[in-house]
Write a structure and sequence with these properties.
Elements lengths: L2 E6 L4 E6 L10 H14 L7 E6 L4 E3 L4 H4 L29 E5 L2 E3 L2 H5 L4 E5 L3 E3 L11 H7 L4 H10 L3 E4 H6 L5 E3 L4 H13 L3 H13 L2 H18 L3 H10 L5 E2 L1
């Protein structure tokens, strides 16, 4: 299995780890199913009162869907719908309202935002970078930008999405714009997230979950409406798969960090 779940009965904290460091924790179709199953299982585990999600290896939190798996997902012909295996990898998509904290080290890009967008808050090591390469490869960033627009100012989301792979947002800049709530020394994000989760888990769970639900209700309607537009924007705007692959092969290049 490429998704590890560890539970600490003493603190009430569980840690969900994406465990494919050799592939920068890119999500396979099997991992997507494992993540959904993990979030749904937590709904019935009263001893788990707060959760941390992170990536193994330190080089990346997650780099989105594994490109080899992405090509194996058949798509409907209608431009108004899409089969996206990442849609249900987050806790809120699986009706989990226990608090989730993301601990980010290294790269977090593209499809990683499905997970980050459904966490309560993010803690990042100084080496963390955030970017969205979709436009670079002829792909529409729709679901990703909707998720990030809930957490960052419009201009910052627009710049990150439109600059594509040419620019990466540093952990410090992510903190300045509100995407990240705490920056630690490199390698310190998981420890800091565990500590915060343990504090939250020590409080009455009914009050904590009610607060999580209240926070999400403030933006649920606009978020759902925006996500409803995403499927046809993607199907209408994406280049054919073979052209995307050409661009992916051709455009390695450097990037700017800010």
């Amino acid at each position: 299995m490429s998704v590890r779940v560890e539970r600490d009965k003493e603190t009430g904290v569980a840690v969900v780890t994406l465990d494919r460091p050799e592939r920068h924790n890119a999500v396979t179709l099997e991992m997507a199913r494992e993540l959904g199953a993990a979030w749904r299982a937590f709904r019935y585990e009263d001893e788990v009162r707060a959760i941390v999600v992170t990536g193994a290896g330190g080089r990346a939190f997650c780099t989105g869907i594994d490109r080899e798996d992405a090509g194996r997902v058949p798509q409907p012909s209608s431009p108004y719908t899409i089969d996206d295996p990442l849609l249900a990898i987050g806790p809120k998509a699986n009706d989990l309202w226990k608090p989730v904290i993301a601990a980010v080290e290294g790269m977090a890009c593209g499809g990683a935002f499905y997970l980050l967008g459904e966490a309560e808050f993010l803690i990042a090591g100084e080496n963390a970078t955030f970017f969205d390469p979709h436009t670079t490869y002829g792909m529409v960033s729709a679901f990703e930008t909707v998720h990030m627009a809930q957490r960052m100012p419009h201009g910052e989301v627009a710049r990150m999405a439109l600059m594509g792979g040419a620019e990466r947002v540093s952990a410090r800049r992510a903190y300045e714009t509100g995407l990240v709530s705490e920056v630690t020394a490199p390698g310190g994000a998981l420890g800091a997230a565990r500590e915060a989760a343990a504090v939250i888990a020590s409080y009455p769970t009914e009050a904590v979950q009610g607060t999580v639900r209240a926070l999400w209700s403030t933006k649920e309607a606009s978020r759902a409406q925006a996500l409803a537009h995403a499927p046809h924007l993607v199907t209408l705007g994406n280049l054919p798969a073979e052209r995307q692959e050409e661009l992916f092969t051709r455009r390695g290049g450097g990037h700017r960090l800010r």
